UniProtKB/TrEMBL annotation:
<dbReference type="InterPro" id="IPR029052">
    <property type="entry name" value="Metallo-depent_PP-like"/>
</dbReference>
<protein>
    <submittedName>
        <fullName>Serine/threonine protein phosphatase 1</fullName>
    </submittedName>
</protein>
<dbReference type="GO" id="GO:0016791">
    <property type="term" value="F:phosphatase activity"/>
</dbReference>
<dbReference type="InterPro" id="IPR004843">
    <property type="entry name" value="Calcineurin-like_PHP"/>
</dbReference>
<dbReference type="GO" id="GO:0110154">
    <property type="term" value="P:RNA decapping"/>
</dbReference>
<dbReference type="Pfam" id="PF00149">
    <property type="entry name" value="Metallophos"/>
</dbReference>
<dbReference type="InterPro" id="IPR006186">
    <property type="entry name" value="Ser/Thr-sp_prot-phosphatase"/>
</dbReference>
<feature type="domain" description="Serine/threonine specific protein phosphatases">
    <location>
        <begin position="81"/>
        <end position="86"/>
    </location>
</feature>
<dbReference type="GO" id="GO:0008803">
    <property type="term" value="F:bis(5'-nucleosyl)-tetraphosphatase (symmetrical) activity"/>
</dbReference>
<dbReference type="InterPro" id="IPR050126">
    <property type="entry name" value="Ap4A_hydrolase"/>
</dbReference>
<dbReference type="GO" id="GO:0005737">
    <property type="term" value="C:cytoplasm"/>
</dbReference>
Amino acid sequence: MLKSLLTRLRPAPTAVFEDPRPDATFAVIGDVHGRLDLLEGLLAKLPDGVPVVCVGDYIDRGPQSIETLRFLKDRPDITCLKGNHEDMLLSFIKEPEEKGPRWIRNGGLQTLADLGVRGLSEMTRGMKLREARNTLVKEMGEDLVKWVEDLPLIRWSGNIAVVHAGADPAVPIEDNPPKTLIWGHRDFMTTPRQDGWWVAHGHTIVDEAIVSEGRISLDTGAFATGRLTAAVIAPEGIELIAT
């Protein structure tokens, strides 16, 4: 019993991370949040021909959410992952009365305002939410809604996984449920993984991009700071590029 207690109290071994080693050079872009202007500017700064992965959260809070979705849908050369804001939008479409208030208070209000839908709040109920959903679906169109629904959750390259929000550090990345990859895990930012995998992600706002302890954190709060950040991850190292 004493041995078991000492085992539990003993600090976890320090994680040792090899350098990020992708299969080939690629770029990862952090949360866009309706800043299509920043996205276009950042793409122009990236090296020609380098594959690009966006980590999700293309909508809400910024001024051009639906335009950003349309732009990305028309760029099959860019791999787009699903973020929690896309997840909230889809939930609102399916269940506007139940899911609408949560989305509205987390940036959906700005997205709907872009479409001319105003006078809503997180306390809105009933007919107004259904009407807002109908306007949103009409403006997006079935093809764009389906594109958002089908967004993948993860991309792999070498010893790097790209997700939106993070992963449970105690569980193999591939075994994390979709909710964790989209919404995050309470231990992700504080507990290094022990398996040597690097995770490139957004979701959690940082002042500047961070490459440390197996995490490549790229959400620099573009909607508020005007700074959208990418990491160009090459076999020889990582270059951070921002607007």
